[in-house]
Amino acid sequence: EVQLVESGGGVVRPGGSLRLSCAASGFTFEDFGMSWVRQSPGRGLEWVSGITWNGGRKGYADSVKGRFTISRDNAKSSLFLQMNGLRAEDTALYYCARAEYTGYDTRFDSWGQGTLVTVSS
Amino acid sequence: DIQMTQSPSTLSASVGDRVTITCRASESISSWLAWYQQKPGKAPKLLIYKASSLESGVPLRFSGSGSGTEFTLTISSLQPDDFATYYCQQYNTYSTFGQGTKVEVK
């Protein structure tokens, strides 16, 4: 059974940093692209960032470009999102999502339960 | 960026009703469209991909159609488990989601 478990969320002040992690199990992690998708009441579902199976290609939403960095460790079946320069509008539930092939610009066939990030002073 | 617009935002229906939700893209996305169902406190669940292909395990009462800029999700006979929020997603260029359609009890 595919499992994606996010961690690392919390409360942070504007301008602060957080590092999200996603631990994957139940499938061969290195065979799939991965993405982070966030959800907030005001902005709905928003794709944040994606990474190909080997980390060779990465993509970011304009809203986070230059502030967030996605990475992965295939040996540890883990996905990461380093978030710097956090803003109030980054407050959301962050989901880790598996792409249905080696890229990330595709449908997402498995999702974690999310980790909550709150940016507030 | 490609914008996705769903309609309606809320839909009131009864068990057994035929339900149709529309999703429009701001430019052509060919058939690179998916539909998800989300229930409160849960992650989205993939229902339909490539506009009309049914994900494994999804009931046959769900179907999708369309190409280019206009797409529909149809539930042929609404069941109690289907009251939820539905989202479309384009994956022609990166990924963008619609704002969601909540299907509620009439």
Can you give keywords for this protein?
heterodimer; A: 121 residues; mainly beta; 7-stranded mixed β-sheet; 4-stranded antiparallel β-sheet; B: 106 residues; globular
Task: Outline the structure in words.
The complex is a heterodimer of chains A (121) and B (106). Chain A has no helices and eleven strands. Chain A has strands at 3-7, 10-12, 18-25, 34-40, 44-51, 58-60, 68-73, 78-83, 92-99, 108-111, 115-119. In chain A, the strands form two sheets. In chain A, strands 2, 4, 5, 6, 9, 10 and 11 form a seven-stranded mixed sheet that branches. In chain A, a hairpin with a 6-residue loop joins strand 5 (44-51) and strand 6. Chain A is globular, with a radius of gyration of 13 Å. The mean pLDDT of chain A is 96. Chain B has strands at residues 4-7, 10-13, 19-25, 33-38, 45-49, 53-54, 62-67, 70-75, 85-90, 96-97, 101-105. Helix content of chain B is 0%, strand content 50%. In chain B, strands 2, 4, 5, 6, 9, 10 and 11 form a seven-stranded mixed sheet that branches. Chain B has a four-stranded antiparallel sheet with strand order 1-3-8-7, with no helix packed on it. Chain B is globular and about 35 Å long. The mean pLDDT of chain B is 97. At the A-B interface, strand 5 and strand 10 of A face strand 5 and strand 10 of B.
In short:
The complex is a heterodimer of chains A (121) and B (106). Chain A is an all-beta fold and 121 residues long. Chain A has no helices and 11 strands.
